[in-house]
Amino acid sequence: MKCFIPAAGFGTRMGDLTSSLPKPLLTISGIPLLEIAIRTALSWGIGTFIVNTHYQADKIHQFLKKFDSLDIIISHEKEAILGTGGGIRTGLEGQLQDNEYFLVLNPDLLLFPESSFYPFPDNFSGDALLYLSQKTEDDQNTSLKLSGGKVYFGEGNYYYIGLGVFKKSILSSVPLKQFFDFRELFIQLSKEGRLFGKEFPGKVVDVGDKELYLKHKDLFFIF
After folding, report:
1. SS3 at position 102
2. How far is residue 160's CA from residue 25's CA, in Å, rounded to a whole number?
3. If we measure between CA atoms, which residue out of 96, 98, 137, 121 comes closest to residue 199?
């Protein structure tokens, strides 16, 4: 299975921390977020990575050279940032058949799964599977409801942790090399009863904004 890691964003929520360094290269106990994502996926047996870049792309390209033994495909969004949906659609062009699955892993969230966890569940044949975690009272993430194994938007006590399994065919309506918000596709799939979900078996640490990052940047992390 191939894994898409979004790394093109401006890191606006990080404030001045990303003025001279792209967000994926911010570190947790000295390990860049992008490297943590790659190592996490490697622990699941992932063999190929697609990483999209835009903001301060040269620094990410240089960093990825340290992984020259891995199969990493860089999808550089030179002219304009494409959003997660547009970035995935463009980055996967020519990489997969429509009936094949791919993984998305967002570096903004640190995952500590149970040792037996594997992201592609046995006998899954749906179009999209989101991994979810329980929300806390002060959680500002989009509220999602998990019912009968399917995900619905609106009132709910779950949020998407940035880890999902998707069939390539769901991208057929997403324009190539144009901006597209992946959330729009999630909403449509949910309305059609095609958005599946599972509760993530483990701990999730969100480091997606400056306050959360500074709170957890010294978190001990070992692979």
Report:
1. strand
2. 22
3. 121
Degrees to nearest 5, angle at CA 139 with 138 and 140:
110
**Residues in CB range of 49: below 8 A, 6 or more apart:** 2, 3, 4, 5, 38, 41, 70, 71, 72, 73
- In this structure, are residues 72 and 96 in contact, taking their beta carbons and an 8 Å threshold? no
pLDDT, tens digit (0-9, with 9 covering 90-100), for 4-61: 999 999 999 999 999 999 999 999 999 999 999 999 999 999 999 999 999 999 999 9
Residues β-bridged to residue 74 = 51
Task: Write out the two tokens for 161.
Answer: 């942790």
Q: Which domains does the chain have, with CATH numbers?
A: 2-120+160-181+203-216 (3.90.550.10)
Q: Which burial class, exposed, middle or buried, applies to 44 when counting CB atoms under 10 A from its CB (0-12, 13-18, 19+)?
A: middle
* Rounded CA separation 105/163 (Å): 5
The pTM of this model reads 0.96
CA distance 172 to 98: 9
Q: For residue 156, what is the enclosing H or E element?
A: none
Task: Round to whole Å and give the CA distance between 157 and 143.
Answer: 6
- Look at residue 220 in the predicted model and tell me its pLDDT: 85
